[in-house]
Design the sequence.
């Protein structure tokens, strides 16, 4: 039977489920470095992500200049304050959270979509945002591989994309999708940080799965 | 040193890199079934995806009615023809490709974003599309877990999202992100199908990685 033929060993499957469960969105880092060969393995893992029409829309900008890292940090801080304002009654609670580790992480990466995306039509005529979806899948590969290597990663989306784009000299039709903090950590969170801090809880899987049509009783919470 | 302390064993890391490399976007399926407990493990893997502000915006609609599967197939066929038209000189080549396995796969799933997304501001004030990015990461978890279980999966984005939304009775502000074919396969592709068929090639990683700023010589191909 074809399933057994292609199924990985129990130990391999355990490793894969383990990394899926233990991956965390990290905000606490402890400096250090990431070896060049490890960084390359992680980027290669990302580059094995799926992509709509095989467009491979992801580009990785490695930030090595300390002054540039500080500029990115300022840009994020600005958005943190604007978000706090927009959050209204939850703003105090929000400001207690650690939201990024840009100055403490070993490596800082910005991931962007390419400027030439309009020429890719396969799977995107009615769903142009599949370029972002593909890139997010690539990032998830990188995230899982990093966790297995013992490295933390955090995805920061608290920034104005146009300002970040300008800061890094990107063409107008690029689109940065995240700032990624990567590196050694003192500890991985047991649970998602936003759960530990009481921001929200993981929903019950049964409330997320419907049959044949949308179930408003479940779907709208 | 913290990296070694948190690093997975060599065998575990090998399994994780293996599944990242062997995952394929499948279009050929051979019927059969997916065990309920396996399907649940895959959905749980997805539900362990990262989500911006812990919003968990993903919902899974399992299609079990044969008539509904046929309606979804028709909707995709319609978009295939419109895409062929839009592709101009590559349309004949496109029509030679196998683009979906909706009628042959064991399980058909539609994944959608929830209608209540506007209330989530953390990490989304300037980057609202992070709901889709989170959901794509969740789907990548499912995809990797499926491959390890010996099951193929294919992401189909050839459809009009509003038509699919109407067909499944979704509220207006939901957003279907893909139709997913899942199940046993006779064989996994050695390489991405679009590479084997000459549609495109995997780019060299070095052309995708920049330092400190956009490199137009590389980035614009």
Sequence:
């Amino acid at each position: 039977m074809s399933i057994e033929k292609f199924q990985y060993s129990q130990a391999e499957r355990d490793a894969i489920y383990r990394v899926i469960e233990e991956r965390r969105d990290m905000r606490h880092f402890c400096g250090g470095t990431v070896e060049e060969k490890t960084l390359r393995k992680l980027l290669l893992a990302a580059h094995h992500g799926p992509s709509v029409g095989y467009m491979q829309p992801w580009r990785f900008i490695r930030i090595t200049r300390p002054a540039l890292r500080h500029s990115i940090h300022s840009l994020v801080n600005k958005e943190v304050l604007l978000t706090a304002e927009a959050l209204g009654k939850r703003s105090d609670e929000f400001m207690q959270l650690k939201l990024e580790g840009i100055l403490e992480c070993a490596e800082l990466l910005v991931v962007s979509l390419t400027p030439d995306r309009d020429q890719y039509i396969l799977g995107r005529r009615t769903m142009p945002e599949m370029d972002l979806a593909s890139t997010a899948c690539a990032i998830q590969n990188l995230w899982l591989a990093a966790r297995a290597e013992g490295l933390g990663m955090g995805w920061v989306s608290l920034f104005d994309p146009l300002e970040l784009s300008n800061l890094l000299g990107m063409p107008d039709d690029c689109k940065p999708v995240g700032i990624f903090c990567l590196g050694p950590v003192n500890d991985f969170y047991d649970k998602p940080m936003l759960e530990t801090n009481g921001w929200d809880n993981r929903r019950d899987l049964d409330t997320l799965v419907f049959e044949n049509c949308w179930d408003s009783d479940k779907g709208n919470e």
Q: What stands out?
A: The mean pLDDT of chain A is 96. The first helix of chain A runs from residue 2 to 6. Residues 25-199 of chain A form a domain with the NADH Oxidase fold (CATH 3.40.109.10).
